[in-house]
Design brief:
This protein has three helices and no strands. It is an all-alpha fold. α1 packs antiparallel against α3 and α2 packs antiparallel against α3. It comes from Mycolicibacterium mucogenicum DSM 44124. This is ESX-1 secretion-associated protein.
């Protein structure tokens, strides 16, 4: 039967994997929302012509910034997902290695 200490470590690794999954979902949602952007700047240009060129340029810049921000957020979420997944594996491996070392030093 697992000790309280072992149970805490299991909860920790499972929690890290749960957080990693949340980051994967966030990354997917960010990618979807970034891809789904329509181009309102083009619509302004198409419907209002040269008279609204300043508005067209401002909206184009805002959309470009939003896309860049979305890509950066997605990158951060992906990196955090990988780090959390790796951390979970490292905790699990450290626990197994520690248990193996203790069992070798103090056989049951």
């Amino acid at each position: 039967m697992a000790s309280d200490h072992e149970k805490n470590l299991v909860v920790l690794t499972e929690h890290l994997l749960h957080l990693a999954e949340k980051q994967r979902k966030a990354s997917d949602q960010i990618a979807g929302s970034t891809r789904s952007l329509v181009d309102p700047a083009r619509q302004v240009s198409d419907t209002h012509g040269i008279a609204c060129e300043a508005t067209h340029l401002a909206v184009s810049a805002a959309i470009s910034a939003r896309r860049a921000g979305g890509k950066q957020m997605q990158k951060v979420s992906n990196e955090l997902d990988l780090k959390l997944t790796d951390a979970s594996a490292y905790y699990g491996n450290a626990d197994a290695a520690g248990a193996q070392m203790l069992n070798h030093q103090m056989p049951r």
